[in-house]
Protein: Tetratricopeptide repeat protein
Amino acid sequence: MANAFMGSHNIKSRSRLFLILTLLSPVIFFVLLELILRAVGFGHTYPLFVDAKGMPGYLQASDQVIKRYFNDPKQAPNVSIDTIYFKKEKPAATFRVVVQGGSSAAGFPYGRWGGLAGMLNDRLEASFPDKDIEVITTAMSAVNSYTMLDLVDEIIAIQPDAVLIYAGHNEYIGVMGAGSALTSAQSHGAKLLFLKLKDLRIYQLMQRVMGLFSPAPPAAQGGAARSTLMAKAAANREIPYQSEIFDQGQQQFASNLQLILSKYQQANIPVMLGTLASNEGDQKPFVSDPTKESTTAWQQKWQVYEQAMADGQYPNALAAASQLAQQFDTANSWFAVGQALLASGENEAARNALLAAKDRDQLRFRAPEEMNTIIKNVAEQFSAPLVDVQQYFVMHSKDGIIGNSLMLEHLHPNKRGYFLLAESYFNTMKKTALLQDWSQAQPSAKAWREVPITEVDAILADYKIATLKADFPFTATPYKVSFPTPNDTVTQLALARQSGQQGWIANMQSLLGYYRQQQDHPQALIVARMLAQAFPSQHGPQFASGMLFLGLKEYPRAIKYLHKALALEPRNSEARKALIYALANTGASQQANAELEILQQQLGNDPVIKSLERTIQAAKQ
Structure:
């Protein structure tokens, strides 16, 4: 009986084991297949941060990140995150900030220093010369809340002390946007699933096989008339106000933003959310409603409006425009109402009409006002500081309407606009006391004089914007833009960079040399400081910045850069001499004497020792 029982038990155990193995066999198969595909080098993974080349101990954002969102990496647009080097092992005393967002956060068309990260880093560095501050950008053109959500875990891994978000314009047309041609999945759930699966080699293999039987996506098609990223992303997709796709864009933004803040909240990382600003007054709607506006009734009323505006009969123009808006409710009709109200001096009502026009613009390159409502609600939900960028721009705009005085085109700020964008975050950081002791906060007027945008950057930015406006959606007939005639040294240097004759480093060094030759120390300092920030592990730019600050008698900031220079080259006697002089002039005689002792050990009885001793003694008095 016992043997029979044991035999029956063994049979049941083997049956259960067989059943378990049968159920697990697909899992085992896929795990093995995944491992084999990885072992043979099939597929790809594009990490957010990679080791910086030639800079041991530093990381930088990968220039391949955008490819992770495309089944065929060759279809990815040519956009990348600006390079910022930062320490792989974050020092305990370092205050690290990470910026997330799209092209406006990234600083297009000025680049890194013209954007939120560059401007804010400069302002914080000037305000806290005794602190080690890193402002790292992960912002990139064409990205939206899906890509931002995908980067969160990797951002958390580098231990930021704060995350700043300025995003929302790309929810419809950006990569994986609700109405974008730069996406394959359509539903919110499918896109989130894609983010989870995209790094699996099995998934990539399936996509590769499916791609063999599918036509090229719209992003890979199109000729010269659709050469810009904006054209490829839009692909003639018109999204009416309050349509199904319009609502999908809002829903995905709200859901993804909540997921993003939830992750950061769990990691105990403070987040600041910024409202969105765009060109309200001077950017006509790209696409209104051609169907409604082709009718005879529309055309007749429109002619009445245009004639009244031309004759300066603004009440009549307003009456005609208001009838258009009430009857047709199109972007152009509301823009006309706004223009008539503005001409009549009714600025507040004009702004409301112009915002209504923007919201009804069916080519959704500008975020509708619903996105700002979402940002405010999510900030309140998570008790995150709200940075009201839009209101800050309104405060600094003529008639309280954001237009060409702060915007280059539809939504990218100009030099002054980017300064205000960074200042709005700077002021919010100050209010929330994210950093202690703001007693040395750099005044706005001084910060504006030191904006880290060179004359070369400004020329190149103007050329980029002119080129942008020479194509869709700003014109139906694309045309070629000529580069400015290089009649002066700065324009010649801009052309050298634009044409590829000089890389960024060589170009900046040439510009620095030019400013030194002209004895334009403030401009030279801007360039030197940018080089020092770009290459934190190189002695030369740190020393040059320190010496220029010393020449301008900005001793605390000189000390910061000279300390950095000596940390990289401890036996550099010229840097130590300058540091001693700067320390003496700030009243730090004890530190100056300590550095003098080190210098004496290096130089012996060099006459400069006596001279520096006298400087220290004189500073005491």
Notes: The radius of gyration is 29 Å. Strands lie at 49-51, 58-61, 86-87, 94-101, 132-137, 162-166, 271-274, 386-387.
